[in-house]
Specification:
This protein is of the alpha+beta class and 193 residues long. 44% of the residues lie in helices and 11% in strands. The chain has a domain of 128 residues. The chain starts with a strand and ends in a 14-residue tail after the last helix. It has a three-stranded antiparallel β-sheet with strand order 2-5-4.
């Protein structure tokens, strides 16, 4: 497992300072239209925005299903306790696991993004309309080539996530990366056994 800090600073801290962490969460939730369905989805939004240059300062690892940041997860808790967002935990009655809905409650200019407002809103308007499995797969592809410097991210994603990469989903994920301005490099798309 590798850890990557996504920001422009040559000597970045391990995470943004206290209150700013919650403002980053609030910034992304509000820029997503005011609600985000699930912490996992917010994790992928922040990761992809950072790949485009947002500069949140969160450390991301690849623990198994794509980029994840423990410091971002704690920042979500901070944003809730500081009243910047609310979190409703949903317990489906008939199927599925519980999940949360994050709702932005307080706008702040305390976080200055490395992206323009237009770029952030354009990316999030695309991401908010996309299936979570495709977003997660897109983030995993981006991680493999950008941070692990995979010579063949296509082969590597098929090895790591064979079931989720089938059924045309990998093509949809790379198309999503193109649409949000983070195209993956072309590689030989061989069939792996």
């Amino acid at each position: 497992m590798s850890s990557v800090y996504l920001a422009a600073s040559p000597n970045p801290p391990s995470a943004p300072p206290g209150p700013e962490r919650g403002y980053i969460v609030s910034h992304v939730v509000l820029a997503s239209g005011g609600t985000v369905s699930g912490r996992h989805r917010l994790q992928k939004y922040v990761y992809l925005l950072d790949s485009a240059g947002m500069g949140s300062g969160f450390d991301f690892d690849y623990p198994g299903f794509g980029p994840f940041s423990n410091s971002l997860d704690r920042a979500i808790d901070d944003a809730v306790s500081d009243g910047l967002i609310t979190e409703r935990v949903i317990h489906p009655e008939h199927h599925g696991e519980r999940y949360s809905v994050l709702i932005g409650t307080q706008k702040s200019d305390a976080f200055i993004s490395g992206l323009t407002t237009d770029t952030t809103q354009r990316m999030l308007s695309i991401l908010t309309q996309e299936n979570m499995m495709i977003i997660s797969l897109a983030a995993a592809v981006d991680w493999l080539w950008r941070h692990e410097h995979s010579e063949n991210w296509f082969r590597d994603i098929l090895r790591r996530r064979p079931v989720r990469s089938n059924g045309g989903r990998l093509s949809l994920a790379t198309d999503l990366l193109d649409r949000i301005g983070l195209p993956a490099p072309n590689v030989a798309k061989e069939v792996c056994g």
